[in-house]
């Protein structure tokens, strides 16, 4: 079922349907965050005039046109930290676009780099943005750890906060105050757990060859420029020299503050919100992709009820109980039908 039917509903009916069809993913009160201006923490990366800062330095826009995309990078590298920004994505026709918010040290450790990603994938007009999270450790690019999801809101209409917590113990990806993914460090991961200082990046670029339906739909520059906006920047962590063998005393104090912050612990209410998000909006998980990984990677926690929803390709099942739910959902509306449509991007 084409999800255009979802967006074509009249606005009042759409709001009512959304409210009654999906439990609200409210996790907690807002985190206690100290924000900085662009110049306090970042430098231009590429794009020249396609990186536009507001006069007060609190907001940055990244533009993609037919000549170039744009990006910025943190002025320092960090060994562990909390990296966050309020982001608004382009609207209308966004097929082929990739907006990325991520940490990496690939410019320093070319063959043994670490990386933590939010990658937002555009779509044809009327169809929603999707996104994926991923992590690499010590150059383990052959072992991708991606999960793909849909959102419970339109990210082009207003700002939402996207955050990455990275400590020596765990990694948590947040949207607003909802944790959507947690990776707990295990001894079995060894060097594949990201552990070297990283920079924070934000970019917009043309990913026509893969971002939408496996490259079927390309960036259409008649809709350019495509604009993504960033504000309320947060950089919490200890600035570190990438070749420094041992952290400074100040860094150990920073690690302690980081691990005791409110965003470092997932409360019972937040864990419930995370479970609901993953049940309703995750449509691919590498942990259940037994064709790629006959033995799940060591950090995977295989949840039987979650595993039952996926094929051995890691994609959502579209038979069995999902067919039954699809038939029942037609009596309530079309929203849930669109939430389980086949996606060729994986």
From TrEMBL:
Instruction: Name a GO CC annotation attached to this entry.
Output: apoplast
Compartments in which it is found: Secreted, Cell wall; Secreted, Extracellular space, Apoplast
SUPFAM superfamilies on file: Concanavalin A-like lectins/glucanases
For this UniProt record, the keywords arranged alphabetically read as follows:
Apoplast, Cell wall, Cell wall biogenesis/degradation, Disulfide bond, Glycosidase, Hydrolase, Membrane, Secreted, Transferase, Transmembrane, Transmembrane helix
Residue ranges of the TM segments: 12-31
- What GO biological process terms does the UniProt entry carry, in alphabetical order? cell wall biogenesis; cell wall organization; xyloglucan metabolic process
Instruction: State its role.
Output: Catalyzes xyloglucan endohydrolysis (XEH) and/or endotransglycosylation (XET). Cleaves and religates xyloglucan polymers, an essential constituent of the primary cell wall, and thereby participates in cell wall construction of growing tissues.
- PANTHER family the record matches: XYLOGLUCAN ENDOTRANSGLUCOSYLASE/HYDROLASE PROTEIN 8-RELATED
Name the chain's protein. Xyloglucan endotransglucosylase/hydrolase
Q: What is the lineage of its organism?
A: Eukaryota, Viridiplantae, Streptophyta, Embryophyta, Tracheophyta
